[in-house]
Write a structure and sequence with these properties.
The complex is a heterodimer of chains A (about 110) and B (about 375). Chain A is α+β, with helices and mostly antiparallel strands. Chain A has four helices and five strands. A five-stranded antiparallel sheet of chain A has the order 3-2-1-4-5. With about 375 residues, chain B is an alpha/beta fold. The longest helix of chain B is centred in the last third of the chain and has 20 residues, at about 350-370. Classes of the chains: A alpha+beta (about 110), B alpha/beta (about 375). The complex binds iron/sulfur cluster.
């Protein structure tokens, strides 16, 4: 959970007085709060941690990091089913290695 | 053993490694602070590719691992209350408290939910006005601003059935404690990149100066680690001790000013106990007096908790870099990810888990080769 994952802003809207965005993390889409990076624009990349954009990132490094994370299974760890993982701690964490998550690579 | 061909850019990796090999003249011990960096190092065998003189010591940078047992036990007690919906990040589910964990509390009927973001917990509070929603707010400087914002939003929107069980920790006081320990061997630090994305680098020059120790802000991809090691070793060989930013694509020297302002508003610095290590002065945050109403510890005055650390677990030494995980007697025998004795074996960022996942085969083979019985 300490990792931060790069994602691309797809759209932005004000909700309950808070600046929120839909962000694409290599196929997984999540709601992200932009209050800490208020000038972030649609199409730009940022490092996102637990639903908050924390720092801008250039597109090339964002893409490279995302590829690497998918390869290492880290996207699965971040966005996969935590109950499943907790039920099978040993096996599930090692799945983070070789068999990269299919659903997040699409 | 891993091979350099597995690196994203093997040519660049080879160049960085050649560079490191060519400048090293004597032994150096560097500590990587972040648990994510530890996993990269072990998974890619970076420690085995480096010159023998360069030793990487794993630091205390796994937030799940350093959360004190007492706090876990408080979480378990609060999560067991019938009126509570207890929300947490997924990696806390299997962290052992005294005798059980959150996963168990849920199977016993507790309403434990996993959220991706603390804002999701706030949403759950909005949707369940007749329940008490508690979010387990742990983590380093990267996670503290999101949690701070969530409490700020709860107050702004007048959501009264939401509170935070806070156990945030700060990296610089931990570095200080490590350097002050008489058994400290660390001569250089690879500082945690994402912590610095928020905090910037302003806390480090004083530490680098006082302990005459190079501090290089480092990312957590394999090439980032090699570059961090290269720069730290270069400084050491030249007798320098400054702060360098080897992760400029994500770290601005001033950090994130909006996040820093929110941290200042919602939290105040406090002494904090680190699991297995003990209390480090000023090493954590708690909610400031203004936000006391949102503090789950006040709301649910949990008392009478009798915490018991498993005696066999040596994760305190592992977290301080005094012991490598496989040197622990319980490693891989009575302690495995399936049946963990300590949080360092549970957490996806824990050092014991990294060795178990990526090094177990190497270690057992080596043991067989050296054992007279085999
Ligand atoms: S191997 Fe298990 S018992 Fe030993 S230090 Fe690590 S977590 Fe604790």
């Amino acid at each position: 959970m300490c990792l931060a994952v790069p994602g691309r802003v797809m759209d932005i809207e004000e909700r309950d007085g808070t600046r929120m965005a839909t962000v694409d993390f290599g196929g997984v889409v999540k709601e992200v709060c932009l209050e800490y990076l208020p000038d972030l624009q649609v199409g730009e990349y940022a490092i996102v941690h637990v639903g908050f954009a924390l720092q801008r990132l250039d597109e090339e490094s964002a893409r490279k990091t995302l590829e690497l994370f998918a390869e290492l299974g880290l996207l699965q760890e971040e966005f996969g089913d935590p109950w499943e993982r907790a039920a099978e701690p040993g096996d599930a964490s090692s799945a983070g290695g070789a068999d990269a998550p299919e659903e997040v690579q699409q | 053993m891993k091979y350099i061909e597995e690196f994203q850019n093997p040519d660049l990796a080879r160049r960085l490694l050649d560079d490191i090999h060519s400048v090293v003249t004597r032994p150096w011990a560097l500590m990587e602070v972040c648990g994510g960096q530890t996993h990269t190092i072990i998974r890619h065998g970076i420690d085995q590719l480096l010159p023998e003189q360069v030793e990487l010591i794993h630091g205390p940078g796994c937030p799940v691992c350093v959360t004190p047992l007492e706090v876990i036990d408080k979480a378990l007690a609060i999560a067991s209350r019938p009126e509570v919906i207890f929300c947490s990040f997924g990696d806390m589910l299997r962290v052992p408290g005294t005798g059980r964990d959150l996963f168990r509390v849920r199977s016993e009927g507790g309403d434990v939910r996993v959220v991706y973001s603390p804002l999701d917990a706030l949403k759950i509070a909005q949707q369940n006005p007749d329940r008490e929603v508690v979010f387990f707010g742990i983590g380093f400087e990267t996670t503290a601003p999101p949690n701070a914002m969530t409490v700020y939003q709860a107050r702004r929107l007048g959501i009264a059935n939401f509170s935070l069980l806070v156990s945030h920790v700060r990296v610089p006081p931990a570095i200080e404690a490590i350097m002050q320990s008489p058994s400290c061997r660390v001569q250089g630090f690879l500082a945690a990149g994402h912590v610095c994305s928020v905090m910037g680098t302003r806390e480090y020059p004083e530490l680098a100066e006082r302990f005459r120790v190079p501090i290089v802000v480092t990312g957590f991809e394999p090439l980032d680690i090699l570059e961090g090691v290269r720069r730290t070793v270069l400084q050491l060989e030249r007798g320098e001790h400054s702060v360098e930013n080897a992760y400029p694509r994500a770290v601005h020297p001033d950090g994130n000013p909006a996040a820093l302002a929110m941290l200042d508003d919602v939290f105040e610095v406090t002494d904090r106990a680190w699991r297995g290590i003990g209390t480090i002065p000023d090493s954590g945050w708690r909610l400031s007096t203004r936000y006391r109403d949102y503090d789950a510890e006040y709301r649910f005055s949990v008392t009478g908790i009798d915490t018991k650390e498993p005696a066999a677990c040596r994760s305190g030494e592992v977290l301080q870099g005094l012991l490598k995980p496989h040197e622990c007697e319980a490693f891989g025998t009575t302690c495995t990810p399936r049946n963990p004795l300590g949080a360092t074996m549970v957490s996806s960022e824990g050092a014991c888990a990294a060795y178990y996942l990526y090094r177990r085969l190497d270690i057992t083979t080596a043991a067989r080769e050296t054992s007279p019985v085999a």
